[in-house]
Fold each of these.
Amino acid sequence: MRSTPKRYTRKQLLQHYAADSQPFTYIDGHAGRGIYDLGENLTEFQNYGLNLLERHHHRLSSGTPGAVASLLEANRRLNGPNETRWYLGSPSLATSWIREQDRMTALEASQEHQPALEAAFGRTLAADGAARRVDIRRENSYLYLSDLSVAGRGLILLDPPYEPYSQYLSWNLWAIDSLRSRCPDTCILMWYPCSGEADRQSLHLRVRDLGLQNAVFAELCETDFGKKKGALVSSGVLLVNPPTDMLDLEAKVQEILSCLQDAFHPVLSMETSYLKV
Ligand SMILES: C[S@@+](CC[C@H](N)C(=O)[O-])C[C@H]1O[C@@H](n2cnc3c(N)ncnc32)[C@H](O)[C@@H]1O
């Protein structure tokens, strides 16, 4: 739930898919509650990261990357000009990109989160029948993905569940490997923490072992992994099978990474990296 490259890269991809009339499928593998009340569960840095980004946006005026600016606007629409109490989670941010021809599935295993997730969709879906195109399922995403086939274009978000890192990483890599043949035109975006150089290198090796043909790592990591506060914002995304007709993918992702790096600069020294697998 932070100002990570995941949020803005995913936005960039959805924007790309929605730029022409062909339908696409969006699947949120770990949907969560949809909207979070930071007033109830505030960690200092969640608010701080967003505030730093907003301050940077005001400084840049019109120079903020589009994906970042539009998410900041969505946040302001929900919160009003002076507060940041409500935080838009991944499924709520995606709904504005789902058109009549598209389909979205939000998977959330926890029964406890279901009412909040449904209420969040009620708040963010336009009253134009969009609800019919969004399927909220109380389901284990790994089971759901194990026999999923997507014929056309699609995007699957694999966020972390709440299991320990080593467990969910194995599940996520297994899902990526098994989806390749059944969803050949689907992009998979997997979030991962960059909490230390050894974990980062090990993740890179494990991903390389999968022999993916078209994949990139995009990361924003604190230069000194030893400082605890950096672990809150150091993270990466693995993009598997990004759309081949998105010729400016690298430029757009680099732009997002640099914007976040600059925004965090007053408190954290971060480095960015964009690496083809
Ligand atoms: C970090 S939160 C997701 C945050 C959300 N993607 C966002 O950005 O707003 C992880 C969620 O995954 C759910 N979860 C854990 N394991 C799952 C599974 N196997 N299938 C579906 N949901 C799962 C948890 O209940 C939790 O709500």
Amino acid sequence: MPGVIVVYLSTSGNTKAMADAIVEGAISRNVDAKAVNFNEAKMEDIKVADAIAIGSSTFNYRMLPPMEKFLQNLEKANVKGKVGAAFGSYGWSGEAPVLIAEKMRELGMKVLDPVLRIQYQPAEKDLEECKRLGKDIAVKVKKIPEKHGKSTSIEDAGVQEVKMGEGGH
Ligand SMILES: Cc1cc2nc3c(=O)[nH]c(=O)nc-3n(C[C@H](O)[C@H](O)[C@H](O)COP(=O)(O)O)c2cc1C
């Protein structure tokens, strides 16, 4: 089954709530997904993932240095060609997800546009948007040439369903 890893840095839980909703969305489309704090993320998990979603809140117009370091380390994981998505909670300027997406593109990842930013604590409708992103990621990973064997007809039906609504945000 294709796999999505969602890595986040969140100081007060806002970006974490987004990460959990993205996972929920991906799982609802029959794709394996899990959210991990950046300091618990294992390079082996990243190497085998088909898609990597990375989230950080914005501090002083950028992401916090430990997340910058994490992104530097991604170079070693050979993420070229993998699906990428960037997200994060913010207060007023929200640069971090944009910077994450830039870095992902530099590494050769296929990054979903636009990045997903939510101001402060995500409300129910914001979490729905996060779930939508998770579903969109699931659709994209299912289009990656097979390396996990065949997909089931139920999964294919799920892909069709999402395709029709794709581009909704
Ligand atoms: C010291 C400090 C600096 C911040 N700097 C920025 C900033 O430059 N731009 C911005 O959009 N938000 C900024 N914020 C707001 C946070 O990004 C926002 O509170 C966010 O919801 C935190 O999410 P988290 O719980 O996932 O870390 C700042 C917050 C604090 C406490």
